Amino acid sequence: METLCSALVFPSFRITTSAFSKCGIRASIAVEQQTSQTKVALLKIGTRGSPLALAQAYETRDKLMASHPELAEEGAIQIVIIKTTGDKILSQPLADIGGKGLFTKEIDEALINGDIDIAVHSMKDVPTYLPDKTILPCNLPREDVRDAFISLSAASLADLPSGSVVGTASLRRKSQILHRYPSLNVEENFRGNVQTRLRKLSEGIVQATLLALAGLKRLNMTENVSSILSIDDMLPAVAQGAIGIACRSNDDKMAEYLASLNHEETRLAVSCERAFLEKLEGSCRTPIAGYASRNEDGNCLFRGLVASPDGTRVLETSRIGSYAFEDMIKMGKDAGEELLSRAGPGFFSR
After folding, report:
1. Are 63 and 140 in contact (CB under 8 A)?
2. Same domain? 58 vs 90
3. Mean of all residue pLDDT scores within the chain
4. Are residues 178 and 197 in the same domain?
5. Which residue in 293, 272, 245 sits closest to 139, CA to CA?
6. Which residues are catalytic?
7. Do 8 and 32 share a domain, yes or no?
8. CB 329: neighbour CB atoms within 10 A?
9. Which residues contact 84 (CB under 8 A, 6 or more apart)?
10. Tally of structural domains, the chain
11. Mean pLDDT throughout 133-146?
12. Could you tell me which residues are beta bridge partners of residue 151?
């Protein structure tokens, strides 16, 4: 937990986490409560243990406490930290580990087994199918979906000299970078939490990296951002910036709690994007991007993209329709079917 409370200082680069220190202290207390707490918690929140995951769990906790007085009492809500497969295996690129639910499986199992009452996930980590006996009735208001460019030597991707190395574990980012800037190199095995990736950058392992702006905002670490990429330059991951909260399908009380927190505009956008992803049956080896938003006319604008990992082939499409659940699901599926047809056989199995 020390990394949550400290300010990490690097040459010419200061990463401040002081604003997160209270969460770190509370998380430490929560861990202790798992063994020493005598009062039975009314609600146990399951989460990964990274600083960002904990920030999202505490955002959920604070919203629950504000909406339900019985949950505002001391000890009523407990945070339970769960280590996932994705947290345990850091030496390989995600694409090489394979499988679905690398950052959710163990948390979902704890939910099904009754060890926790609700599970807080980054929606981009949630497979397009949900485990049996679980539902995901709640999305919190979405954060900024754009990607942030961070470098000690350049203001943007365009400013990087030929041959510069950009670190990212995301094939979506890699393919879009190489498509626009083929003279750059990408280090794929650039894993770890936000703090770890920034440390690698400061050590000169790479010359730049891209991180989700949403995570940096939730960690109060936007001072590290060199520039922000537009949606046109870097289409975000499906459900990027969205938090999803799951519970057991037979737990009406938890479903009632979560319904009170749900942000419907976010839920509809995420549902549209996930319908697109499900139609493509994308794996960790397939660069896929998708973003649904409300345009100035109040309609849904959906943009989708698939690419080859080396960025030599990028296929894009878009849809505009009513900002309503059934219409948005249809738009996502239709866009996915179009790109499947245009990509041709073998594109998604390479």
Report:
1. yes
2. yes
3. 88
4. yes
5. 245
6. 125
7. yes
8. 17
9. 48, 102, 103, 104, 105, 106, 107
10. 3
11. 98
12. 208
In this structure, the dihedral spanned by the alpha carbons of residues 106, 121, 274 and 189, taken in order and rounded to 10 degrees, is -70
- Do 189 and 308 fall into the same domain? no
User: Could you tell me the CATH number of the domain that includes residue 283?
Assistant: 3.30.160.40
Q: What is the dihedral of CA 17, 30, 127, 146, to 10 degrees?
A: -20
Read off the CATH number of the domain in which 109 is found. 3.40.190.10
> Which pTM does this prediction carry?
0.86
Alpha-carbon distance of 206 to 171, in angstroms, equals 16
Residue 69, judged by CB atoms within 10 A of its CB (0-12, 13-18, 19+), counts as exposed
Do residues 199 and 214 share a domain? Answer: yes
Q: Predicted confidence band at 282 (pLDDT cuts at 50, 70, 90)?
A: low
Q: What is the pLDDT of residue 229?
A: 98
The half-sphere exposure of 48 on its side-chain side, counting CA atoms within 13 A, is 21
Whether the predicted pLDDT of 231 surpasses 80: yes
Q: Are residues 27 and 99 in the same domain?
A: yes
Exposed e or buried b for every residue in 246-282, given b needs 16+ CB within 10 A? bbbeebeebbebbeebebeebbbbbbbbbbbbbbbeb
Place of tokens 């499900």: 278
Residue 124 domain flag:
yes
Are 81 and 127 within one domain?
Answer: yes
Residue 350: predicted pLDDT: 58
Is 108 a domain residue?
Answer: yes
Whether 308 contacts 178, CB under 8 Å: no
Separation in Å, CA 331 to CA 121, 141, 236, 273, 290: 25, 22, 18, 9, 12
Phi-psi region of 99 (alpha: psi -120 to 50; beta: other; left: phi over 0): left
23 inside domain: yes
What is 305-320 written as a DSSP string? Answer: EEE-TTSS-EEEEEEE
235 located within any domain: no
Rg (CA), the chain: 20
Domain that holds residue 177: 147-228
246-263 pLDDT, tens digit per residue, is 999 999 999 999 999 999
Match 């650039």 to its residue by tokens: 190
Residues 134 and 155 in one domain: no
β-strands 314-321, 300-307 pairing: antiparallel
